[in-house]
């Protein structure tokens, strides 16, 4: 990237101001948060640190050629060599300094978020948003780092650098190599977003991930933060909601022996998210009420209609918001497994099945998908 190209777009943009021309420079996660914010969906406020900040910090450091040479010389099938190279690459990236111009904008943007929330040193999530994430032919979801409950500008600055460095985890390096993505052609944007205080959280798919059926919305839910659900550390409750009738057609309440919860520190340090064993009364209790299940499903369906394709959504119930208005969306990305398979209406003599299919997948949408 040339210096001229880097100066054509800003280094920090609030979610509500992200324009289409910014999307190539903010990664899939930030772009989605911007689109959802502007579509009126309930998204916690925040801002994107664009790839300009990453690219100019890397250029100023002079270390990118060394990182590229290091990875090019590493045999990714040699686990010890890969581990050493990845650690060295991350060490080099975390040594980068934000340019003064970008650091000033970051400081101002975080201060504005604190003012908006009415909380000094407001807790934020600092989330990686690589330009390769959520691409049509690959999903890098989960390959890069997210940091929760980050408080204070010094901590935010540090976590931004650590998000940049997560381009070079062992998993990310191997995945890029397997998918044919050059290591020196990926950039990292970062989302900084006001934290929610979730009673429950999880994911929602606007199709059934077990069979690709688009007539239902599948919701996974567990107590506390959704990181346990996304990482597979917690076996979530599962619900399937009909998109037309808005009935809950399947419910599985799983034993949830632990959760990722916000805990206070004994030493007076900032609260942090930790893995906590749950009391017996929570283990087998449903993490959502029926009203909450339907509210999540309706928001997921709204997001699907807005984007025009099946979505993989991260959501949370924010305890800081009143009941009935407490569902917030943290992320929406295109579903990447079944969506690659061309949707076709099965031959059937069941008139009702044909009607439901048409309601859920209108002919106009199918034609658009076929020609897009």
In short:
The chain is α+β, with helices and mostly antiparallel strands and 372 residues long. Helix content is 37%, strand content 22%. The protein contains 13 helices and 13 strands.
Chain-wise SSE layout:
Blueprint lengths: L2 H4 L5 E3 L12 H12 L7 E4 L1 H11 L2 H9 L6 H16 L5 H18 L6 E7 L15 E5 L2 H13 L4 H10 L8 E7 L3 E8 L10 E8 L3 H5 L5 E6 L5 E5 L5 E6 L8 E6 L2 H4 L6 H18 L3 E8 L8 E8 L16 H10 L2 H9 L1
Antiparallel strand pairs: 1-2, 2-5, 3-4, 3-5, 6-7, 6-12, 7-8, 8-9, 10-11, 12-13
Helix pairs in contact: 5-7
Task: Provide an overview of this structure.
The protein has helices at residues 3-6, 27-38, 51-61, 64-72, 79-94, 100-117, 153-165, 170-179, 227-231, 280-283, 290-307, 351-360, 363-371, and strands spanning 12-14, 46-49, 124-130, 146-150, 188-194, 198-205, 216-223, 237-242, 248-252, 258-263, 272-277, 311-318, 327-334. It is an alpha+beta fold. A hairpin with a 5-residue loop joins β8 (237-242) and β9. The protein has 13 helices and 13 strands. It has a 6-stranded antiparallel sheet. Strands 1-2-5-3-4 form a 5-stranded antiparallel sheet. It is globular, with a radius of gyration of 21 Å.
List keywords for this structure.
372 residues, alpha+beta, six-stranded antiparallel sheet, five-stranded antiparallel sheet, globular, disordered N terminus
